[in-house]
Design brief:
With 77 residues, the protein is mainly alpha-helical. The chain has one domain (3-73): Glutathione S-transferase Yfyf (Class Pi), Chain A, domain 2 (Up-down Bundle), CATH 1.20.1050.10. 55% of the residues lie in helices and 0% in strands. The protein contains 4 helices and no strands. The protein has helices at 3-24, 39-43, 57-67, 70-73. The N and C termini lie far apart (25 Å). 10% of the residues are buried.
């Protein structure tokens, strides 16, 4: 496995673990913690990752919420 592939594999594993955490966390709303975007939403903007997030419905929903905001659409990566 190449180093890049190993990194993406680790990102996928991390998202799977985070999914379980966010499902149980009462603070999870339209975004990672609540109904307003925060720094974590910016840092984990899914356009930065070539990762399949379909197995993570909560994370997928949060990414969709981010994609609806003009500020996230305008982020240049």
């Amino acid at each position: 496995m190449t180093r890049v592939a190993a990194v993406w594999d680790r990102v996928s594993e991390t998202f799977a673990v985070r999914e379980k955490t966010f499902v149980k966390d009462d603070r999870t709303g339209s975004f990672w913690h609540g109904d307003r975007p925060g720094l974590l939403d910016v840092c984990l903007n899914n356009r930065r990752f070539d990762v399949d997030i379909l197995p993570c419905p909560t994370i997928s929903r949060i990414f969709d919420s981010c994609a609806e905001l003009p500020a996230f659409v305008q982020i240049e990566l």
